[in-house]
Amino acid sequence: MENKVIFEKGKEGRRTRYLTKPEIPLKRADELLPKQFLRENLNLPSLGELDVVRHYTNLSRLNFSVDTNFYPLGSCTMKYNPKVNEALASMEEFTHVHPYQPSTDVQGALELIFNLEQILCEITGMNRFTFQASSGAAGELTGMLMIRKYHAIKKNKKTKVIVPDSAHGTNPATSSMCGYQTVIIESKENGLIDLDKLAKSCDSEVAAIMLTNPNTLGLFEENILKISEIAHKIDALLYYDGANFNPLLGITKPITMGFDAIHLNLHKTFSTPHGCGGPGAGAVGVSLAMSDFLPAPLVDKRGEDFYLNYKIKHSIGRVRSFYGNFNVLIRAYAYLTSLGADGLKRVAQNAVLNAAYIREKLKQYYEPCSILPSMHEVVFSCSRQKARGASALEIAKRLLDYGMHPPTMYFPLIVNEALMVEPTETESKETLDNFIEAMINIDKEISEEIEKVKNAPHTMPVKRVDEVYAARNLNLRWQSPGASF
Amino acid sequence: MSVLKFSKTHEWAQVENNLATIGITDYAQKSLGDIVFIELPALGSKVKQGLQFGTIESTKAASELFSPLSGVVSEINKELINNPQWVNEEPFVRGWMMKIKFENNNELNSLMDEAAYKEFVKKEAH
Known about the structure:
The structure holds two protein chains of two kinds. Chain A is an alpha/beta fold. Chain A folds into three domains: about 5-60, no CATH class; about 85-340, Type I PLP-dependent aspartate aminotransferase-like (Major domain) (Aspartate Aminotransferase, domain 2, 3-Layer(aba) Sandwich); about 345-470, Aspartate Aminotransferase, domain 1 (Alpha-Beta Complex), CATH 3.90.1150.10. Chain A has 17 helices and 13 strands. Chain A has helices at about 5-10, 30, 50-60, 85-90, 90-95, 105-125, 135-155, 170-175, 195-200, 225-235, 265-270, 325-360, 385, 390-400, 430-450, 450-455, 465-470; strands at about 130, 160-165, 180-185, 205-210, 235-240, 260-265, 280-285, 300, 305-310, 365-370, 380, 410, 420. In chain A, the strands form three sheets. Chain A has a seven-stranded mixed beta sheet, sandwiched between helices. A four-stranded antiparallel beta sheet of chain A has the order 10-11-13-12, covered by helices on one side. In chain A, strands 8-9 form a two-stranded antiparallel sheet. In chain A, helix 7 (about 135-155) packs across helix 8 (about 170-175) and helix 12 packs across helix 15 (about 430-450). Chain B has a single domain, classed as CATH 2.40.50.100. Chain B is of the alpha+beta class. Chain B contains five helices and nine strands; from the N terminus they run βββαβββββααβαα. The model of chain B has no long low-confidence stretch (mean pLDDT about 95). The interface of A and B includes residues 169, 413, 467 and 471 of A.
């Protein structure tokens, strides 16, 4: 593969110029900006237009995405993003609004936020939502800051947050960010929370229990009501990490399960493109008792008019500029309204069915992590394969040769040689069968021609990279040999 | 006389008088895989038995390091920070992480000796 960066392709003085001089007078940058903000010698490369087009088009063709290949990356819900979302989010009526415009000018945008909140309240049973947080982790932090404020106002002495050992890594991180000590509860053999251990750890100083349901093993926490009872008895609140909400759409609601504060990853469950850091939207929903703590402003309605309400009694304050990633909200709204209540329920059912199908077909080759049924994702342990000489990493790399994105590896941490497969609802039976066949083939290759697996991938533009060397010798920035900045 | 003790979280402590050298076991380094990053406590800081004293990161995951004993950090293995592979290569020798001065001898009794730890690992592996 050619791997020159565009800076290395430049030639002094080379350029393409189709446009002649404009007729209107233009101001130069130094007439508009103070001198101390200007730089000279930017060291930008000079290239012809065709060279630039080829450079970036070829780079884009190296993308491995859900639009090109099966992408069963567990816990990330890399579902297909319907193109109607894009068409609607690109409408000038949305792209040309500015957050500093008076609210009378942007009634449509405010109405969309208002309606989206109503829909999410209906789906989850929560009382209100904020859309400021621009990722799931930021949503968690927002939710937990509200919980902290709830306890502060009640003058509760709370020092700890309980998190199961199968939790997303962001959960303990959020708890620490809020100044709490994280108490980790071990899971039982079957992958669910150990109620006895939980009850023992729940003293009066526990501020909250953070849970994902289905949990990260893809299992439904069937004792959720008992967990809720244990928490509420000591005035601890229950926080719902909605990363795995996909299989519950239209089936059950977080409020029914006893959750007080939740976040939904709009970019996962409600289909907006994500990965490589965004853009995301962590919509944070709260019960009636928690609504006074929401970040301001919220979109409210007075008569027929939508307005930004800054009067939130015990608001934790802003968690982000303006109203979050508005373009993600448009896509989520388009997705929700085009599917409707029945459509969303079918999303959940098909997501579970697809994962169950993969599990059933592969269970004699790869060991499922639990005897309990899987929900929208299935976690396998590749211990049997490891014993024959190939690790989960190598199996994942080999899948690339079959034209499929590897599943999540080595997570959750409590499963040895974990591969976490989340097919999502939009995949056809044929695609699932191809994946199943590839996995069975790889299992066979481990016995018959293991080198094929150990040296994979063979067909990718970049072959096996030395991840250990890369992590130990960080080199994150390309520098031109003559660059001065 | 020096004794080697082990914790349930797979750290070892080589104890001589009231000084303990601490690192992670061979079993721990094998489960973690290739170590790429280590974060150790500051000199003079206090560590507590069973609580976190640092962080260790492999290509698979970031994990917490738990101190097998309570005490004050008297020395850290500075060179290890630039050579995290030593934990994989020689977990009990060049892979040591910190030395602490400890006072509570009772804590020692809660740790396992080598035979007990070997038995513990055998069970853990299943």
